[in-house]
Amino acid sequence: MIDWAMYLLLGAAMGTLGGIFGIGGGLIAIPALVLMFGMDQQLAQGTTLVMVVPNVMLALWRYHQRTRILLRHAAPLAAAGFVFAWIGSIIAVGLDPDAMRIGFAVFMMLLSAYSYLQMYLPKPQPSKELRHPWPWLMVLGSGSGILGGFFGLGASVLATPVLSTVFGTTQVVAQGLSLALAVPSTGVTLLTYALHDHVQWHLGLPMALGGLLSVSWGVKLAHTLPEKSLRTWFCLFLLVCAALMITKA
C-alpha cells in the first residue's frame, strides 16, 4: 500500500510537470524511471506508456468537446502514425538497452536545442487551414509515429511544433491533430511493449492515476508563468536528464 501511494505521488508529480511544460508526462517519466528505479530503457518506456495512453485519450476527449477536429486531416495522420509506431516499437524492443538509453539521451539534447531555438526563429502567420496538402500529413504521421514507437513517447512531441511551423496551423489546431495522431500510435506501442514483457503494471497504473489527477493543475500553473522562462527551464531540464542518462553506469 505504501509503494502504491508512492507511485501515485510520482505520477502526480510527472503529470504536473508535464502540464507545466506542455509535453505530457512521458518525456519526464522515462528518465525518472531509469535514474531513480534503475530500469533498463525499454522497461522504463513501456511502463511510462501505461501513464501516457490514458492521458492522451482524456486530452483528446476534452479537446473534442471544445474544438472540432477535422477528419480529413486527422485520418491520414493517425493511420500513418499507427503503422509506423508499430514498426518503431518492434525495432525498439529488440535493441540493446544501453544503446537505447544513449539514443534517448541524444534525442533529449536535440529536442532541447530545437525547443530553445523556437523562441527566436520567425513564426509564420497561423491559420486554421494547412499550408501543405494532406499527403504530407502522412509523411509527418510516419515520422512522428516511428519516433514515438521507438522511444515510447506520444507522437505529439514532434507533430505539434511541425504542424504549427511547417504547416502553419494555429497552436490549437496543432495540438488537436497531434492528439488524434497520438492515441492510436501510443496504444499500439504499449501493446507491443507489453507483449515483450517491457511493462511493470503495478507501477504504471498508479502513476497513470496520479497523472490524470494532476495534469490539469499543471496546465493552469503554466499559464501563470512567462513563456520564455518556462521554455528555458524545460530545455535545461532535458539537458540535465540527458547528461545523467549518458553517464549512468
Q: What's the SSE blueprint?
A:
Layout: H1 2-21, H2 26-37, H3 41-66, H4 71-92, H5 97-117, H6 135-151, H7 156-165, H8 171-195, H9 201-222, H10 227-247
Helix pairs in contact: 1-2, 1-9, 2-3, 2-10, 3-8, 3-9, 4-6, 4-8, 5-10, 6-7, 6-8, 7-8
> What's the tally of helices?
10
* Helix content, binned percent: over 70%
What pattern of helices and strands is seen along the backbone? HHHHHHHHHH
For the largest beta-sheet, the strand count, sense and barrel status come to: none
Number of strands: 0
Range of strand content = under 5%
The helix/strand class is mainly alpha
Gyration radius, rounded? 17 Å
Q: What do you see in this structure?
A:
- Helices cover 79% and strands 0% of the residues.
- The chain has 249 residues and is an all-alpha fold.
- The longest helix is centred in the N-terminal third of the chain and has 26 residues, at 41-66.
- It starts with a helix and ends with a helix.
Characteristic key phrases:
mainly alpha
How is this structure best summarized?
This protein is mainly α and 249 residues long.
